[in-house]
Design a protein that fits this description.
InterPro entries: NAD(P)-bd_dom_sf (IPR036291). This is Saccharopine dehydrogenase. It comes from Actinomadura luteofluorescens. The chain has a seven-stranded parallel beta sheet, with helices on both faces. It has two domains: about 5-125, Rossmann fold (3-Layer(aba) Sandwich), CATH 3.40.50; about 130-275, 2-Layer Sandwich (Dihydrodipicolinate Reductase, domain 2). α2 (about 40-50) links the parallel β2 and β3. The termini are far apart. The radius of gyration is 19 Å and the shape is globular. It has helices at about 15-25, 40-50, 85-90, 105-115, 130-140, 165-175, 215-225, 240-245, 280-295, 310, 315-325; strands at about 5-10, 30-35, 50-55, 75, 95-100, 120-125, 145-155, 180-185, 185-190, 195-200, 205-210, 230-235, 250-260, 265-275, 305, 325-330. It is α/β, with parallel strands linked by helices.
Length: about 325
């Protein structure tokens, strides 16, 4: 009998959306929806089928779960600030995935994973859209012989920032630093003040005030491609679709520059757009990671620290994104 995937924060937006994606892909995969409020968790579980609801206490190293309960993986769809979820997974040799640490406060998670590197596979997915932007950029990079620059610009609609946990994450990360991490001339460099303030172009040409931010996408893309210039610009405001009177959408500009296979200069600029905002894409990114960690697609994943681009296939990712309504346009 298969053991359930424990989704910490499973009754929140990211957790419940991820559970719904996993249920669609794998109807026979049991899920455990874990949260502080058992009634909310039970409502989500009942709607999914083949799922149970459990209460969660993140202040306890055993998560407040019965000792006899077994799981197949642990997903932290909520901030695991004490790393009790990670420790729980390591003690039991279970794959673990997290999305809320962010680049500026990821060190405890990295150290915990490195100290017990042989205990369990740990997928660090605190990237934008749980790693999807990185994977789309890598798919686009296939057209290049050499990649020199990667410039990402994302617009998050203020009405699509997520639930209370996601808003807490945004506020925490903004409070920790206003500086951005970039790769410039091959060196990772911090930028702050006026240098970090940028205009972020929306898909309809409107430029929103934004910032060059510190996010895991920057080192992931830089180290995966060798590009000497990488930055990620981010703005929170009204998306293009909402300015047209439609629901909030999410949009990301991916600007790549280098040379083609023949050595001739090459530059591509592409927009990623989803009419339902970031929620379905973030859930998709998490679900892809869980599927891979469980060996439901691809070979077994060994213990140690992993990032989305190290485990997931960019072409498959784009295919899955397109299937749920994402559009890609060259500009």
């Amino acid at each position: 009998m298969k053991q359930p995937v424990l989704i910490m924060g499973g009754s929140g937006q990211a957790g419940s959306d991820t559970a719904a994606v996993l249920r669609e892909w794998h109807p026979d995969l049991p899920l455990a929806i874990a949260g502080r409020n058992l009634d909310r968790a039970r409502k989500v579980a009942d709607g999914l089928g083949n799922a149970t609801a459990v209460t969660l206490d993140l202040q306890r190293s055993d998560l407040g779960l019965p000792a006899e309960q077994s799981f197949s993986a642990v997903v932290a769809a909520v901030r695991d600030s004490r790393l009790h979820g990670l420790g729980y997974a390591q003690e039991r040799g279970l794959p673990y995935l997290s999305i809320s640490s962010g680049l500026v406060d990821i060190a405890p998670e990295v150290v915990a994973g490195a100290q017990r590197a042989s205990a369990a596979p740990v997928l660090l997915a605190s990237h934008y859209l749980a790693g999807l932007v990185v994977l789309v950029a890598l798919d686009l990079a296939r057209d290049f012989g050499r990649l020199d620059a990667i410039r990402i610009a994302a617009v998050l609609d203020e009405q699509d920032a997520g639930g209370p946990a996601a808003l807490d994450d945004l506020e925490r990360l903004a409070a920790v630093t206003s500086a951005g991490l970039v790769r410039r001339d091959g060196a990772f460099t911090w930028v702050s003040g006026d240098e970090a303030e940028v205009g972020v172009p929306s898909i309809d040409g409107v430029v929103l005030p934004g910032r060059r931010i510190a996010i895991l996408d920057v080192p992931s893309l830089a180290l995966a491609t060798g590009a000497g210039e990488v930055h990620f610009d981010f703005a929170v405001g009204a998306s293009a679709s909402r300015r047209r009177g439609e629901p909030a959408s999410t949009e990301v500009l991916i600007d790549l520059e280098g040379t083609g296979p023949s050595g001739a200069p090459l530059r591509t600029r592409s927009h990623l757009f989803h009419p339902a905002g970031q929620r379905p894409l973030t859930a998709l990114g998490i679900a892809l990671g869980v599927e891979r960690l469980l060996g439901l697609r691809g070979g077994p994943v060994g213990p140690g620290l992993h990032t989305p681009e190290a485990l997931l296939d960019p072409a498959l990712t784009v295919e899955r994104m397109t299937a749920i309504g994402t559009t890609f346009a060259t500009i």
